[in-house]
Write the structure tokens for this entry.
Amino acid sequence: QVQLVESGGGLVQPGGSLRLSCTASGFIFNTFTMGWYRQAPGKERELVATISPSATPNYADSVKGRFAISRDNAKNTLYLQMNSLKPDDTAVYYCSAAGRRWGQGTQVTVSS
């Protein structure tokens, strides 16, 4: 069965950095576009970034220049490097496979 397990979330001060990881199993990882989405309480889930099987990235305007999505196909792992974090980045972050399968999420809280 498909499994997506996020890790790396936590509490960080504004301007700080975090790196999220997503370990994947149960499908051929290197054939799927993968992505990171986030959802804050009371708001809809929104796109953060996607990355194609060939590692071409796309970003939401709100995170361009601050976040970087990457993948290690040999390890079936997806990453999101988050720099210059802002309070508005606070959300539960979800790993997705082709926008159809989701992990349990990891909480990111940006607060002083």
The CA atoms of residues 90 and 109 lie 5 Å apart. The first strand starts at residue 3 and ends at 7.
